[in-house]
Amino acid sequence: QVQLVESGGGLVQAGGSLRLSCAASRSTFSFNAIGWYRQAPGKQRELVAMFDSGGSADYADSVKGRFTISRDNAKNTVYLQMNSLKPEDTAVYYCNAKRRVIASVLDYWGQGTQVTVSS
Length: 119
What we know:
The protein is built from no helices and 11 strands. It is an all-beta fold and 119 residues long. Strands 2, 4, 5, 6, 9, 10 and 11 form a 7-stranded mixed β-sheet that branches. Strands 1-3-8-7 form a 4-stranded antiparallel β-sheet, with no helix packed on it. It is globular. The N and C termini lie far apart (40 Å).
């Protein structure tokens, strides 16, 4: 059974920084993709940053240049460094991992961690 456990959320002022962590119960390389989504109140969940199957990082346009995704192989952990935070970054952030099985894709989700950016 796959488990993803997020940590590192909190309250920060605009312009500040936070680092989120996602600890996986298995090697992050066992997934076809792993990264972060977020969901703000009243909005759909959206992709923030993701490592694809080739190990390349993809970012939402709204966070490019401010957020950085990274991984620690020894700790089976993926991080999201968030700098220059804006009030519009306020959301619940979810760790997501994808595993391709034959013709379908399995999605695994963490429980989410709240990030609140005050103006």
